[in-house]
Amino acid sequence: MSKTLFEKIIAREIPAQIVYEDDLVLAFRDVNPQAPTHALIVPKKPIPRVAEAKAEDQQLLGYLLLKAAEVAGKLGLDKGGFRLVINNGADGGESVPHLHVHILGGRYMKWPPG
Prior knowledge:
5 strands, globular, HIT family, subunit A, single chain, alpha+beta
């Protein structure tokens, strides 16, 4: 089975502008930003999408969200606010089959988003 784009970034086979890393997650700037600040945070464990997460992933999913908020703060988004987005499946806008959270900020976010 071939690696996803994000697995290759985690393995340092593809360069990325990394903004945070620990044993469980990696955060890096999006190469096609949709806001002035746009980063992705991914679990190092390859989970294809949130709908395929298992009960044993519960702790990792919570950790992922807490770290997303921490990274948003590190990127200076904690004062003005930010948006976290998780896409699931083709109709949800998923383009890489590896669970990831978009951290978007630096401008007002309209609602509804899509």
